[in-house]
Amino acid sequence: MLGSDQRHFGLLPELTSDLERKVLVAGLLPFDDWEERLRRVHAALAGSYCTITPDEPITINRGGSPYRALFLLSASSC
Fold first, then answer.
1. More confident of the two residues 21 and 57
2. Residue 49 Cα distances to 9, 12, 26, 31, 36, angstroms
3. Of 13, 37, 40, 77, whose CA is between 20 and 30 Å from 54?
4. Distance CA 61, CA 57 (A)
5. 3-state secondary structure (DSSP) of residue 12
6. CB neighbours of residue 25 within 10 Å
7. Residue 69 parent element (H or E)
8. DSSP character for 17?
């Protein structure tokens, strides 16, 4: 699960420019503000990847009410 501090993206190994980099990011976010948090994750990845494709989030309910949003992002380099 990703927290609000995305500095861990800076720890990804550097690859030579001729190799395509791909990453799959998954997260479980509070339902009430998942959209804002997902925008921040997307912004953190935008500087390192050319294409970032989100899948439709999956809503996880608790007691019949939305509780969490599970998301996946696929990203690849230029």
1. 57
2. 11, 12, 16, 26, 20
3. 13
4. 13
5. coil
6. 20
7. strand 65-76
8. T
Torsion over CA: 77, 73, 10, 39 (sign): positive
Which tokens in the block code for residue 70?
Answer: 């599970």
Mean pLDDT (whole number) for 42-52: 86
Helix (H, G, I), strand (E, B) or coil at 60: strand
Q: At CB < 8 A and 24+ separation, what contacts does 49-55 make?
A: 49/21, 49/23, 49/75, 49/76, 49/77, 50/76, 50/77, 50/78, 51/75, 51/76
Q: Convert 46-68 to b/e letters by CB count within 10 Å (16 or more is b).
A: eeebeebeeeebeeeeeeeeeeb
The arithmetic mean of pLDDT across residues 46-56, rounded, is 87
Query: Taking Cα atoms as reference points, which of 30, 46, 55, 54 lies closest to residue 78?
Result: 46
Instruction: Tell me the pTM.
Output: 0.58
